[in-house]
Amino acid sequence: MAADERRTDAKALVAAAVTVVLWASSFVSIRSTGEHFTPGALALGRLGAGALVLCAVLLVRREGIPPRAAWPGIITSGLLWFGGYMVVLNWGERLVDAGTAAMLVNIGPILMALLGGWLLKEGFPARLLAGMAVSFAGAVVVGLSVSDGGGSSPLGVVLCVLAAVAYAVGVVSQKPALRHASPLQVTAFSCLIGFVACLPFSGHLASDMADAPLSATLNTVYLGVFPTALAFSTWAYALSRSTAGRMGSTTYVVPFLVVLMSWLVLDEVPGPLALGGGLLCLAGVAVSRSRGRSPRPPQPVAAATAPPAGQPTSPAPSGRRTAG
């Protein structure tokens, strides 16, 4: 791998790591905030705070409006991922236990790899598929370890699956937009579109904010500024320098990080099963992001040179005289 490629891959990996950590922290915040905000109101508040920060940065950097070619991907990503995904997932997590939700949402990266290989012509590298299989197994183990065993609502299962589909389609639609616009432009306008789509929940948000404690409101602002504005921007930056399939594989670390953060913040001690599943997630990500050995460049073959004019040709190697 060339030095420039190594630097680009390292920057993308750091950006993806920032995204994964902040997205994992959002689950911890949503657990407490969701008690005081309805799913639509929480999504609207989060997207409003995120859109405000992103548009301010956009104005400071003077990046302007994205070109026309980027808008189909921005609109699709804004409606499905920023808008629909957040509302549906907030709703679904109220109806299923944490373990089931983690397993169902982690269908998303698999769908992402399949859609990226098909629609974006990214192919289906063996290392990516193998790594995703290992990571998915780890996510299932983590999900089983944190499941409360209280049963799941069929509607909750359907909602979590819909969230995973919206997540995958949103990411895959975002990739072509990044060929025409900057990561900040794509993220800011996608967030703004998601915010506008969630405006019908403004009445619920006003009512919930009037009754919610200050800590819940501050948590909503945190969700908008960090897991949304910052994390979605670093995600778009990394996605612009990688494939949708490889980026999706990195999110398998999220369930493991959620367990660790819950341990530190909520005093929920992870068991050996959760830690083992987390190690599987990390191992799968390492496999999916690894590169195979580069094939050896072909050795140059010396071209046969004709003897200078006037010199006799060498005799045939067989020892027999050539026909005269």
UniProtKB/TrEMBL annotation:
InterPro entries: Alkyne_AA_exporter (IPR052756), EamA_dom (IPR000620), EmrE-like (IPR037185). Residues 301-324 have a biased composition (Low complexity). Pfam families: EamA. Keywords: Membrane, Transmembrane, Transmembrane helix. GO terms for cellular component: membrane. The keyword Metal-binding does not apply. The chain crosses the membrane at residues 12-30, 42-60, 69-88, 100-120, 127-146, 152-172, 184-206, 218-238, 250-266, 272-288. It comes from the Bacteria. Residues 289-324 are annotated as: Disordered. The keyword Cell membrane does not apply. Residues 12-142, 155-287 form the EamA domain. SUPFAM superfamilies: Multidrug resistance efflux transporter EmrE. Belongs to the EamA transporter family. This is Permease of the drug/metabolite transporter (DMT) superfamily. It comes from Streptomyces qinglanensis.
